[in-house]
Write a structure and sequence with these properties.
globular, single chain, 7 helices, alpha/beta, Rossmann fold, 37% helix, 244 residues
């Protein structure tokens, strides 16, 4: 197996975890719940879809009712390889499409990477048709990531306020993960961060990733769960009015 093939497997497991992810995906507990939430709510997105902050478009294949799938992202120097699948780049302020061009919007793990969240939500409102739907996931209990472009964390009430302020009705929202899974996820993060970088680091991490992934799943199943600490907020929104 070539290095390129190995990287392809790791990339796939990052967003679409299988049993292999128990051993190699240090964010397995987070990613499995995001994928499950996207699959559950994918039925709301139809027609022309804008994937805002699309990256490599990892969830494109999950949307079966979409006629046209367009990915937009912010161009970052040094990430040309990972942004090859981006259809259009935006300048951080204006999404380069006309008013009410899209029937649906998907945005996964993006809003924590923008300082001007209110401007961005206004732009998402602008390009979405009236009664169009948006599916947005946003992290709450995550370690800092994609540095130095990780800027914020939002609670559920904060997101409810922001979405409603910018012309969206909340159709559905829920939290992924729970306090038990968060504890074991951060245990994995701890070992990942303290082990120095070297060629075989990923191999050395395998036992820690496996043990804490399994324990997180088991204890989350058998113990009472608490949602005051959780991984992500998942919102399904409907645009109910244009902003002036």
């Amino acid at each position: 197996m070539t290095i390129k093939q190995l990287k392809s497997i790791v990339q796939k497991e990052k967003f679409h975890p299988t049993i292999l992810s128990f051993f190699i995906n240090n964010n397995f507990l987070i990613r499995k719940s995001i994928r499950k939430a996207i699959i559950k709510n994918s039925k709301h997105l139809k027609g022309a879809l804008l994937d805002f902050g699309c990256g490599t478009k990892p969830y494109k294949k999950l949307f079966l009712n979409v006629d046209n799938y367009i990915g937009v992202d912010y161009k970052i120097e040094g990430r040309e390889e990972s942004q090859k699948t981006v259809d259009f780049f935006y300048d951080g302020k204006v999404i380069p499409f006309k008013n009410q061009e899209f029937d649906s919007i998907l945005s996964t793990e993006v809003l924590e990477h923008v300082f001007n969240i209110e401007e961005i939500l206004s732009e998402l409102n602008r390009v979405l048709k009236i009664n169009g739907h948006a599916l947005i996931t946003t992290p709450f209990m995550w370690e800092e990531h994609e540095m130095p472009y990780d800027f914020a964390r939002y609670t559920t009430p904060a997101l409810e306020y922001l979405y409603q302020k910018h012309g969206f009705e909340i159709i559905h929202n829920h939290k992924t993960g729970n306090q038990i899974e968060v504890i074991f996820q951060f245990a994995i993060n701890y070992f990942k961060n303290i082990i120095p970088k070297f060629a075989l680091k990923q191999l050395l991490l395998v036992p820690f990733i496996f043990v804490f992934n399994v324990l997180g799943m088991i204890f989350s199943f058998i113990l009472p769960t608490d949602k005051t600490a959780y991984f992500n907020n998942v919102f399904v929104l409907k645009k109910i009015n244009n902003l002036d």
